[in-house]
Amino acid sequence: MIVWTVANQKGGVGKTTTAVALAGLLAEQGKRVLCIDTDPHASLTYYFGIDSEELESSAFDVFSAGKNITAELMRRSILPTEFKNLSVMPATMALATLDRKLGTQDGMGLVLKRGLAMIADDFDYVLIDVPPVLGVLMVNALACCRRVLIPVQTEFLALKGLDRMMRTLTLIHKSRCENYAYTIIPTLYDKRTNASLQTYKKLIARYGRSVWNGMIPIDTKFRDASNEQQPPSVYAPKARGVLAYQSLLTNLQQLDVR
Ligand code: ADP
Ligand code: MG
């Protein structure tokens, strides 16, 4: 099981889109894919047409179980989607209360890691969509991943946000000895604007080989795909944006060999 966590403390940079796009492409490869939504806004959950207020069990129940997490509870909190090989652990708004309720409880940062270890044979890939907040959910998502994928919007202000995210990663890395690699993904690239090119160049200058050497273009098909509740590669297999995610995926699969 390869776990990739999609994180950035900035909203609207393409986190959920990245998780869904990669998940869709992996599922088409015949891989068994699990998307975990840990964002109380539940965008990924809605993406797959799941009504998060109607659920018997969700990511909230998994985290609430804390140390008492079981394989049975993990499996009960995972729903199939209408797309072959693609399952979702949905989020609910209640996730927003976890930090306050359970944030300081012992072992709380490792719940998802322990839970995933119990169902490691059920899936080939897990993609975790994380809220833009440093809290117990992000700590959990970082604790169990092989690689952190950091979408960064190619515009001037994005670099500041990225520096903050990198400091967060270092902090968690130091305090928990977690060992993950990371890949910065330039997103919402607009080739007509100078800002996109300049930001891309700065990213490379500052973060070098940790930056994927491609970019995800602005492509209106992403919004259309989410309206249709279909992974981008199902909705528009030949779209520029989908081809870009395919090339990113090829790169990631070369880096993280099973
Ligand atoms: P986040 O999860 O970081 O908040 P989203 O993935 O939800 O960001 O993206 C925010 C909005 O931008 C969504 O409406 C999404 O459809 C749109 N979007 C994401 N990536 C692209 C892209 N490459 N081109 C055009 N629109 C995009
Ligand atoms: Mg999101």
Automatic annotation (TrEMBL):
<dbReference type="InterPro" id="IPR025669">
    <property type="entry name" value="AAA_dom"/>
</dbReference>
<dbReference type="InterPro" id="IPR027417">
    <property type="entry name" value="P-loop_NTPase"/>
</dbReference>
<feature type="domain" description="AAA">
    <location>
        <begin position="4"/>
        <end position="175"/>
    </location>
</feature>
<dbReference type="Pfam" id="PF13614">
    <property type="entry name" value="AAA_31"/>
</dbReference>
<protein>
    <submittedName>
        <fullName>ParA family protein</fullName>
    </submittedName>
</protein>
<dbReference type="InterPro" id="IPR050678">
    <property type="entry name" value="DNA_Partitioning_ATPase"/>
</dbReference>
<comment type="similarity">
    <text>To B.subtilis soj.</text>
</comment>
